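Subject: sequence -> structure tokens, single chain

Hey, anyone have a minute? Need the predicted structure for the following. Not urgent.
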Amino acid sequence: MTLSMYSTSIPVFQQMLNALKEVLTKAEAHAADKHFEPQALLQARLFPDMFPLLRQVQIAADFAKSVPARLAGVEVPAYEDSEQTFADLQARIDKTLTFLAGLRPAQIDGSEALEVVLRPGTPKEKKLSGQTYLVGYGLPQFFFHVTTAYDILRHNGVEIGKRDFMGVY
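Reply:
Had a minute. Here:
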């Protein structure tokens, strides 16, 4: 049995983004319960040279929308990266989930051999097949940023565990 490009991407992005929404809800409640400013979590990072939570969530949403958009041959939705609050991040994830819900299997299935060019026209240009782009690049990038967001919150005392990370499957 083979997995389709659609079933390897869209349901995975949806599951993890919905889980991330729940984790962010718990993080905001944690800040309120402990009486500190939510910005302390939104700007928290694991190490000084890493992006803060806010940017990790933005990038996770970016991969969740851009990878399937490229595979489907549709324009990647543009977001302004203007989020400053937990509510803003929730809205960004909601926009991404709405976009994903509008993609159909017929748009993505069969894109295994599609040529995807990363950083075109630059010295870092890289050409990948659609399957390699999804499985070897897009999903690992997405999971890195979702995991880092989770880790930042866990490190800062938000009571979340593996079930929270995984969400409903």
